[in-house]
Amino acid sequence: MSRILRPSRRDMLRLAGIAGAGLFLPRAARAASAASPERRFLFVLARGGWDTTFVYTPSQSNPNVSCEPDAQTTDIGGLRFVDHESRPSVRSFFESWAPSTAIINGIEVRSVTHDRCKRILMTGSSAGGLDDWPSTIAARSTENPLLPHLVVHGPAYTAQYTDRVVRVGSNGQLRALLDGEALTQSGVDLGGWSSEVDALVDARVRARTAAWAGAAGRGHAASVGAGYGNALDTLAQMDGIADQVSLSPADAGCARDLAADAAAAFDCFSLGLSRCALIQDDGWCSATWDTHSGNDMQVTHYELLFNYLSTLMADLSTRTSISGGALIDEVTVVVVSEMGRHPQINNTGGKDHWTYTSAMLIGGGIRGGQVIGEMNSDFQGQPVDLGSGAVSDHGTGLLPSHLGATLLTLADIDPAEVLDDGAQPITAVLA
Fold first, then answer.
1. How crowded is residue 233: how many other Cβ atoms within 10 Å of its Cβ?
2. pLDDT, tens digit (0-9, with 9 covering 90-100), for 53-90
3. Distances (CA, A) of 96 to 42, 101, 120, 311
4. Whole-angstrom Cα Rg for the chain
């Protein structure tokens, strides 16, 4: 990647009117502390709703569930899953990562519409005005990273913490902003000022910013000055990031390369630039996991997903954190889909939406080699004891807020400070 072309302050003033919402830079941040590294999170969202009977919820003996022929239930390292010769990458993944992986079944999203389910899964509620788990975790970072929550590809739900979310952009807009390419793409006449004039403009802007920020009794001016001063400081810290982080769209033919998207997130984690990141799996050739017809496409989606997961975990295992330790010890990978699929095949050979889904947690902070939760004969999630993970008549029906409480706890955040429904973490999965 070529060296960043540093635009002048004058250029940035012009560019500020061009940058799209959510693509410009967050407010200033200090370098991450190497003394006390925080847990970081990579969210992987399988968009469209996966059929959990292909991996997570063995149901071959359930007469109320349509399952693929010749599938078998297998146990590797304490993980009980559905195995089939058509999906060798699933078995291969668990052979390598079962000790670091926990599966959570029977999470009820209480909706069957995609957008609503994604919001519920990621925030715990269908109501607007709430921040999702990664934005909340990133916003409460004590390290104040430069790119707190990096959305490489996929959705973000924010209210209070919108300024903590930075999007790479579907066409690599963030990189274009960082390396100066956006200036040439914009068509703005940058003029022919000399470097000496640029330096004078820069000094003038800095002086005026400092004067506004320190203006006694001038609340609005002081606020504007402080905010712009933070933006200038952020720009200085951003210098060179385009050289160290791959922020280009990860194209794998007709679909994105999930492992390459993850690599961009890991670059930012290693440098202490981000605490959370989200990537989205749109399935084979971006067809999504929404298989209302041709449900056997789930085979291909799962094979590709677990192949990507193996690649990205192998990549993560080679990385060093900003603290000097192994990055894999500090990162939790959260693999989810916004809904499941109906237990029965429909009249077009597919499966419709279902309100129960599964999640998979991998890596640092996770007590692996276990499956939490089961489906009953009606293919509904059974209540579990949050402490042991065992199915119990006196247990708790799992909701997305329980998953959120678990992630918040992993992030050293008290769930009671965030959740208003009293959901407790699934402590059985916490190492």
1. 14
2. 999 999 999 999 999 999 999 999 999 999 999 999 99
3. 19, 10, 32, 11
4. 23
Q: At what angle do helices 88-97 and 297-316 cross, to 10 degrees?
A: 30
Helix (H) or strand (E) holding 144: none
Rounded distance, CA 125 to CA 400, Å?
8
Q: Which two tokens stand for residue 324?
A: 């000097």
**pTM, rounded to two decimals:** 0.85
| 370 in Cβ contact with 80 (< 8 Å) | no
Question: Domains in the chain, start-ordered, CATH in brackets?
Answer: 31-170+249-429 (3.40.720.10)
Sign of the alpha-carbon dihedral angle for 24, 26, 28, 30: negative
Query: Which residue is listed with tokens 């050289």?
Result: 243
d(CA 213, CA 57): 57
Positive or negative torsion for Cα 198, 204, 210, 212: negative
Beta bridge partners of 73: 82
- Write the Ramachandran bin of 324: left for phi over 0, alpha for psi from -120 to 50, otherwise beta: left
Residue 270 phi, psi (nearest 5): -60, -35
Cα 431 from chain centroid? Answer: 21
Q: How far is CA 45 from the centre of its chain?
A: 7
pLDDT for residue 311? 98
CA distances from 83 to 63, 93, 369, 383 (A): 19, 12, 16, 25
Q: What is the DSSP string of 107-164?
A: EE----SHHHHHHHHHHSSSSSS---HHHHHHHT-SS--SSSEEESSS----STTGGG
Determine the residue type at 397.
G
- Round to whole Å and give the CA distance between 45 and 282: 8
Q: What is the pLDDT of residues 110-124, one digit of tens each?
A: 999 999 999 999 999
**Which tokens in the block code for residue 227?**
């905010």
